[in-house]
Amino acid sequence: MLIPSIDLKDGAVVQLVQGEKLAIRDEDVFRWVRRFEKFPKVQVIDLDAAMGSGDNLVLVRQIAGALSCRVGGGIRTIERARDVLAAGAQQIIAGSSLFKNGAPDLAFAQTLCEGVGRERVIAAVDSRGGHVVIHGWKTVLPLTAVEAVRALEPFCDEFLYTHVDTEGLMGGTNMAAIQAVRDATTRKVTAAGGITTQKEIDDLHALGVDAVVGMAIYTGTLELKIDR
């Protein structure tokens, strides 16, 4: 399944290359909300909140009330998770908050799981150079995505795996890395990071993996097809 992504920064929809270089900025956020409204799943990420440089919570709440979406970025407390869920989000995506002192923070993972329900928790595991990265992909941890997934599996209903090495480059993703994560868990898996073509989406679907796509949609490279 194709899951379109809405990444928010400074009140606008953006696409970043490798999480750093601005490639696309569109202040007409709700043009994209309307375009994606018929999709069964949309991913909304508050990049400012994720990077600790403010937030777009007012926008996030509005979008969550308009789309069938999962919301991530700055989900560091039960209160924030409950806030976006109350606004209409179907699930929350937690990333950096699930790690502490270089390892999975199982205590917080359990608290989040119990606080909002496991079925509403998506654990984001981002990998760069073979290691998990957090804090806007700036902090490298001494563990692999597979190790992180195995540790966090009891506390979430789904994993979002982002292959940062290919993120925003429009050159395709790393199917072998995604396959390794898929093989490491019985939970649902969604993949992101450089997914550009319909063939990649179809190949991931054959593995039972959904595909989050951003840059290829915003550049018009990929024709949108709604999966039901």
Summarize this, please?
The protein has 228 residues and is an alpha/beta fold.
Key traits:
single chain; 228 residues; TIM Barrel; 8-stranded parallel barrel; two-stranded antiparallel ribbon
Layout of helices and strands:
Elements: E1 2-9, E2 12-17, E3 21-26, H1 29-36, E4 42-46, H2 47-51, H3 57-66, E5 69-72, H4 78-86, E6 91-94, E7 99-100, E8 103-104, H5 106-116, E9 121-128, E10 131-134, E11 139-140, H6 145-152, E12 158-163, H7 175-184, E13 188-192, H8 198-206, E14 209-213, H9 215-218
Parallel strand pairs: 1-4, 1-14, 4-5, 5-6, 6-9, 9-12, 12-13, 13-14
Antiparallel strand pairs: 1-2, 2-3, 7-8, 9-10, 10-11
Descriptive notes:
This protein has an eight-stranded parallel β-barrel with strand order 1-4-5-6-9-12-13-14, surrounded by seven helices. Strands 7-8 form a two-stranded antiparallel sheet. It has one domain: TIM Barrel. It starts with a strand and ends in a 10-residue tail after the last helix. It has 228 residues and is of the alpha/beta class. It has nine helices and 14 strands. The protein is globular and about 40 Å long.
